[in-house]
Design a protein that fits this description.
six-stranded parallel beta sheet; 3 domains; two-stranded parallel ribbon; 17 helices; alpha/beta; 46% helix; Rossmann fold
């Protein structure tokens, strides 16, 4: 291997699978044989549970990076207070920016209770707070467009509620089925049908047929063109006011465009299965639920997955950078509790809380280090006085704002 690959670089090494990382250490570093190993990354940016985190070894030479070429001084000053052991210097000390923290402690209504949602605002109340913060930030010059600003949230449930695809989120037992387009229906609708509809609406017919593939391009006479126009116009009507099932049924009938084999097979299986068979099959149950959902939710999901909105999960932006970043810190996942994390941050960490603390700290740090120019945090979760003290130390008293909506 050393002859073929004399140098092995691993980027974002801290999120390398722990077993794979142990194998590299035992086969190469412990033995002193094999390729030259270069590990690029930061243990404070480990955010995946199966990642190895920090790797230290006598055969590794540490090369520190103390320059921050991304963020303005206002943001870097916050990062340095969060992480004083790694002081960072900025490229341009004169570049201007801003940081702000908004919290919802003055909310007088009820909050969620029980489980991993305890202390958070209900969905509509959280939406109202987010809208208030957006209006304030727009008044300060923020542009909430995908190429300028990213809004980071923890869970897909909150993202779905904010972007109007909650029923799709609820249809699937596992989020990867639709977020990673592992479901053949979602993959076809998001990656093929939606781009084709958009191309048709814009009059880009060549692009439409390119997306649909050669098997769809069957035009031998003028009547074929008229049929395509008729069927695509009907498709656009169903896209606006119909369900996902109605769209699929239309495509099955007209075959313009054609459904992929995997989708046709699943649709046939669903149409011939008994209620008991459907109930016993997760896949068929999910497709059955999906068919009853308004197609406009699929349009919203496609916009999100194709990065046409300002929204993303905190996990989804590691390594990325944006001019402005608004981080929404709420509940929804039992592995994360921002109030507890902040309460622990200015004291000694109990041994049984170290793993929890580092998991929360790393995601908080990754999210806070994404902006080039402006950073804002919104806590929809109620936070304690000691948590606010932590934020005041990191961000400064003048940056802390209590919102009443």
């Amino acid at each position: 291997m050393k002859i073929r690959f004399p140098v092995l670089f691993i980027d974002e090494y801290q999120d390398t699978n722990v077993d794979f990382a142990k194998s590299i250490v035992s086969h190469f570093l412990d033995s002193g044989e094999g390729p030259l190993i270069g590990l690029f990354g930061d243990s404070w940016q480990k955010i995946y549970r199966d990642g190895c985190g920090l790797i230290e070894h006598e055969n590794l030479k540490f090369i520190g990076k103390e320059a921050n070429f991304r963020s303005v001084k206002t943001v870097v000053d916050v990062l340095n207070r969060i992480r004083p052991a790694l002081p960072q210097e900025v490229k341009d000390p004169a570049a201007t920016g801003s940081v702000a923290v908004y919290h919802s402690n003055n909310w007088v209504g009820t909050r969620r209770s029980g489980g991993h949602w305890a202390g958070d605002l209900h969905s509509q109340d959280a939406h109202n707070y987010l809208e208030e913060v957006r209006h304030r930030l727009e008044d300060e010059g923020w542009a909430f467009v995908p190429e300028k600003t990213k809004i980071l949230m923890l869970t897909h449930a909150t993202l779905a509620a904010e972007q109007n695809y909650s029923h799709i989120d609820g249809a699937f037992e596992y989020k990867d089925s639709f977020i990673k387009k592992e479901n053949s229906h979602i993959a076809f609708l998001v990656d093929t049908l939606e781009p084709a509809c958009i191309a048709y609406m814009n009059g880009h017919y060549g692009e439409m047929f390119f997306v649909l593939g050669a098997r769809s391009l069957i035009i031998k006479a003028q009547e074929d063109k008229r049929a395509w126009v008729r069927d695509m116009n009907k498709l656009l009507e169903l896209r606006e006011s119909g369900t996902i099932g109605q769209v699929l049924d239309h495509l099955k009938n007209v075959k313009r465009p054609r459904l992929p084999d995997a989708v046709k097979k699943a649709e046939l299986e669903l149409s011939t299965a008994s209620a008991e068979t459907i109930a016993a099959s997760r896949g068929l149950t999910e497709i059955s639920r999906l068919r009853d959902i308004p197609y406009q939710e699929l349009v919203s999901l496609a916009d999100f997955l194709n990065d046409h909105t300002p929204f993303s999960t905190k996990h989804g932006v590691k390594g990325a950078e944006f001019e402005n970043v608004l981080v929404v810190l709420g509940r929804g996942w039992n592995l994360y509790n921002w109030n507890q994390f902040l309460e622990l941050s200015l004291g000694s960490i109990p041994s049984d809380k170290i793993s929890f603390y580092e998991r929360n700290r790393n995601l908080f740090y990754v999210a806070s280090s994404r902006p080039k120019k402006r950073l804002a945090l919104l806590f929809t979760q109620k936070i304690s006085a000691s948590a606010i003290s932590t934020l005041t130390y990191w961000f400064g008293k003048e940056a802390i704002h209590s919102l009443t909506v």
